[in-house]
Amino acid sequence: MKVPRSRAIAGVLLPVLLVMVVFPVVATGSDSCPGCGMVWKDTCAPFEKNNETAYNEELVAAFSPIAANQTPLADFSNESWSGAFLSLHTLFKERYAFTRWRAVDWDTLYQTYAPVIADAEKKQDKAAYYRALREYLFSVPDGHIGIMPVTGEFGAKYADIGGSYGIAVSRLDSGKVIVSYVANGSAAEIAGIRPNDEVTTWNGKEIHAAINATSYIWAVKKPSTAEGILLHQQRFLTRGPVGKPVTVSVARSDNSSPLIVNLTAYDDEYETLKKTSTFLGRQVNDYGVNQIWTDIQPQISNDTVTYRTLPGGYAYIAIYSESYDVYQPFKSAMQSAIKNKTPGIVLDFRYNSGGDDNIASCVAGWFVDQPVFYEYVTKYDPGTHTFKVLSEAWTQPRPDTFDGPVAVLVSPDTISSGEGVPMILAKTGRGSIISWYGTNGAFGMNNFQAAMPLGQYITFPDGASLDINGTIQVDSDAMLAGGVSPQIRVPMNEDMVARSVAGEDVQLTYAMQWLDNQQKQNASFVPAVTATPTQKASLVPALPLVALGFVVAIAKRRK
C-alpha cells in the first residue's frame, strides 16, 4: 500500500505517528493468496462505491496477518548524530526490502560515511551532516529511499549547486553532448558559446567522464535507473558553488575554430535547471522552491486530474498522483472522452508522485479487455523477521472500457504507483509508452521509517510488489535496469532539444503524431512487451503504510 504524498507529509508532522493504531476489521484470503489480509478481485469496486471510510477499513484489514507485530516509527531524534546514523544503518539492514535485489552492501556504506558523520558532529556542522546523510541514502539507487528535511537543508544545497555557468547541456541519441541553452548576457554567451555547440571537455575531463562523475544527490525525485541517473547528472554538470571557476571546451556548430572558455559560477536562481526540466513536458522550477512537496505541482497544474481535448479530437488526461479523490474526476474524464467518441487518448503520467496502487490498477481497468493480475504486496513482519504477502489485487475491465489507441507519456519523475498504469498497459499491449525516458523504477511499498536529529525523516520501502509468479516487478536492480521503458522513444536530437527549450512539448507532439498514424492505418498497434527485472520472492518487501498510513487517513501505498 502506498501513502499519497500529501497525507504522508501531514502524517510525519503528527506526534501520533509514533503510535500504532489498528482497527478490528475482518480480512479475507483466497486460494491464490492464502493467509492474505485482503484480496481485491476488482480494484475499482471500492472507488465505485465512493465510500472512503469503508475503503480505509479494508486497507487496515490487509495488515491483519502482521498487525500485532507492527512497531511505531523509529525515533532516533534524541540520539547523537553518530548514534542515530548507526541506528538507521541497523534499521536498513533489518527492514529494507531490496538489499539482495540491488546488491546493497550496507556495512561498506556505513564504514564509508560514519567517519564523515562523526567529523560533522565534532564540528557541529549541520550542512556537512545533512550532506553526508543524503550521500549515504543516494548511494542506493532507489527513488523511495529519501530524506525529508522538515527543518531545511542548512544551506548545503545552495552551497553545492547554487551557481550556474550560464549554459545547460543535453546528451543526444548519437552520444554527442551539446549546449542546449545559453543564458542571455552570460559570460558563456559573451565568449561565443551557442546552442548546438558540442561540449568536448569539462574542467579538463572528457565530457562523458565528467558527466558520469557528477553528483546527483540534489535530485528532487531521486532516480533509480541508469538513464534517470544520467539525466540528472547532465542537469547538475553545469552547476556548482557560486564563485567556482571551470574551463569548458566546445566544438562550434558552424565548424569554426573550437573554443576554450573559462567561466565562473554565479547565482541564476536555478534557471539552467529549469531549462532542463522539459522531460516533464514544460519548464518547471523544481529546485528553487521552498517546499518541493507542495510547490512544484502547481507549476504544472492545480487539478487533481487534467482533462482536455487535443487537436484531432484526442482526449488528454493527466494524473498527478493516486489518491482516493482521483478516481471520480478520472472516471468523469473517461466518460466524456468515450461519449465524444475520441479517436485516441493521451495519458500523461510524467509528473506522478504515486499513492494508492488500487487506484492505479483501477485506472488501468478502463483500457484492458480481460482481467489482469496487478500484484501481490509484501511487508516486513518485525515479529518473524520475514517479508510476508499481505494482499492480492486484480485489474478488471470496466463495463465501458475504451478500446481505441492509447499513448502513455512517462518520465523518471513517474514513480511508485504512478508506474502501475504504464506497467499494465505495456504488459497487455493496450497502450504504447511514448517518451524520452522510462519511469523511475521505484515500485516498492514505501513508508516513513525513522525520525533523525535536526528534524529529518527517512523513508524507505519495507515491502515489494510481486507479479503473479511471486517475483519483484518494476523496481530497478543492481544493474540499474528497471522501470517501464518507452516502446517508442522520442528522438533526442538537435531539433527536438531546440524545440523543447523553446517551449514546445515535443513528447506530446510525438504522441499525437502516433495517434494520427493509428487512424491512418485503421489498425491496432500492439507493441512488444517490455521486460522488467524480476527476482524470486524470497526476502522481499511489503505494503507501505505502517505507522504512517494507519494514522493519517490511510490511503494505499507507495510514496
Largest sheet: 6 strands, mixed
Report, as a whole number of angstroms, the end-to-end distance. Answer: 9 Å
How many DSSP-defined strands?
23
- Structural class by secondary-structure content: alpha/beta
What is the beta-strand fraction?
15-25%
Count of helices? 19
Q: Bin the helical content.
A: 25-40%
Q: Quick gist of this model?
A:
The chain has 559 residues and is of the alpha/beta class.
What is the fold's blueprint, element by element?
Elements: H1 5-12, E1 38-40, H2 45-49, H3 52-61, E2 74-75, H4 81-95, H5 106-123, H6 126-138, E3 146-149, H7 156-161, E4 163-164, E5 167-171, E6 177-182, H8 187-190, E7 198-202, E8 205-206, H9 207-212, H10 226-237, E9 239-240, E10 245-251, E11 259-264, E12 266-267, H11 271-275, H12 292-295, H13 297-300, E13 305-309, E14 315-319, H14 327-339, E15 345-348, H15 357-364, E16 372-381, E17 386-395, E18 406-409, H16 420-428, E19 432-435, E20 446-452, E21 456-461, E22 465-466, E23 488-489, H17 494-501, H18 506-521, H19 546-551
Helix pairs in contact: 4-5, 5-6, 15-16
